[in-house]
Amino acid sequence: MQTTPLSSEQTEVYELIEGTRDNVFVTGRAGTGKSTLLRHLVEHTAKRVAVCAPTGVAALNVGGQTIHSLLRLPIGLIANTELTQPEATRKLLGALDMLVIDEVSMVSADLMDGIDRALRQARGRRAEPFGGVQVVMFGDPYQLAPVPPRGDELRYLHDHYRSHWFFDAHVWAGETPDAAGIIDLGRHGATLHIRELRDIHRQSDPAFKALLDAVRHGRVTADMAGVLNGHGARTPPEPVDGEQPIITLATRNDAVNAINKRHLDALIGRSQTAVAEINGDFGRGDAYPADVELQLKIGAQVMFLRNDTAGYGEPPRWVNGTIGTVTRITGDKVRVSVDGEEHDVEPAVWERYRYAYHATTRQLTRDVVAEFTQFPLRLAWAVTIHKSQGKSYDRAVIDLGSGAFAL
Fold first, then answer.
1. Which of 48, 55, 263, 375 is 20 to 30 A off residue 152, Cα-Cα?
2. How confident is the model at residue 378 (pLDDT cuts 50, 70, 90)?
3. Residue limits of the DNA helicase Pif1-like DEAD-box helicase domain (predicted)?
4. Are 15 and 41 in contact (CB under 8 A)?
5. How many other CB atoms sit within 10 Å of the CB of residue 181?
6. Which of 392, 407, 404, 398 is nearest to 202 (CA)?
7. How far, rounded to the nearest angstrom, does the alpha carbon of residue 400 sit from its chain's CA centroid?
């Protein structure tokens, strides 16, 4: 695996993680290199590590499993009860030195305590937070939040937790109650180092950085509001001199699909469909990394869904989020023009993994259990805001529709 060199602040955090057994939460605004550090850590650590995330898409992006799949946790509220754990799960969790959790801001307080309980129980070290496993978390609470439950489950959380955020889990405060004396969880909370990455690698305009930071923290001044309002509620400029149409970021899938269909239908020529090849249990449709049926025409505006990996050691021809235009379609390749240069794009393979522990060799392995093969492209006159997370665009139109999410 080819990883990007770390900056000085990323190196400092990496050395803290690798040189200790302490739990670490790595946060930072968009573009500060959290994903780069995560990939470097997983590739270079000498520890036995498993990577997980709260959703299938997030797990796929980091080459791991979902939290519930890895730890065999029940779906829904995880109350204070003994967990049912197969022997294979106990052996797997017992072999871990480090557990990496990506997009941890989507992990609820009770799920975090469920992770703690599963590790203590599987490893037979019930008095130690996380059963002695080092937990390293990546995420930004300003970007994504856990989805709160409803009804009785919501009332349970209100009665037992200060909030539904992961940092209010009992494991950090040492307040986790036992289950009628069945489980002795100890009284001391887990130590947690919080490290914020501050160097932004996506934006180079200092004024724009300051504006984004003010919006992030709710400290927008009247002058800043004037700048923002000056860019809102206006008709986007038409492309000139062969420019690509500005991508629209919308809140709903139906709005995105309608925009993309309208532009695709307006192109002259016959639409061609590339059908994905799926081997193994890759999950449901919403977990797929690309369209199962990708419809393209010559002239279609597309977005790359993966970084270029063809030229090892060479500058990438495109990155995840690059916008281009289809200029030719053959059976096994799609030619895409990016900034005036044309590139032949071949189907990419996404792999879904599952961790396993092999008692005979005492090795923890990450095994491929499913594959999804498709061109790493998506129609990109419009894309949902959710799917655009982590991507960089030179310019964009923000369509909030009739309303948008808020925290």
1. 55
2. very high
3. 6-154
4. no
5. 6
6. 392
7. 22
Q: Which two tokens stand for residue 286?
A: 């919403």
Strand boundaries in 41-165, DSSP class E: 49-53, 65-66, 98-101, 134-138
Average pLDDT over residues 209-225: 88
Phi, then psi, of 370 in degrees rounded to 5 = -160, 155
pLDDT in the model for residue 313: 61
The predicted pLDDT at position 186 comes to 44
CB atoms within 10 A of CB 193: 14
Tell me which H or E stretch contains 217: helix 206-217
Q: What tens digit of pLDDT does each residue of 78-128 get?
A: 777 788 899 999 999 999 999 999 999 999 999 999 999 999 999 999 889
What φ, ψ does residue 311 adopt, rounded to 5°? -105, 90
Instruction: Report the candidate in 375, 402, 380, 400 with the shortest Cα–Cα distance to residue 391.
Output: 380
SS3 301: strand
d(CA 207, CA 26): 25
156-166 average pLDDT score: 90
What residue ranges define each of the domains in the chain, with the CATH number in brackets? 8-196 (3.40.50), 204-234 (no CATH), 236-351+378-399 (no CATH)
CA distances to 348, 372, 382 from 280, in Å: 16, 9, 31
Contact, 318 vs 343, CB < 8 A?
yes
Q: For residues 64 and 349, is the Cβ–Cβ distance under 8 A? A: no
- The pTM of this model reads 0.81
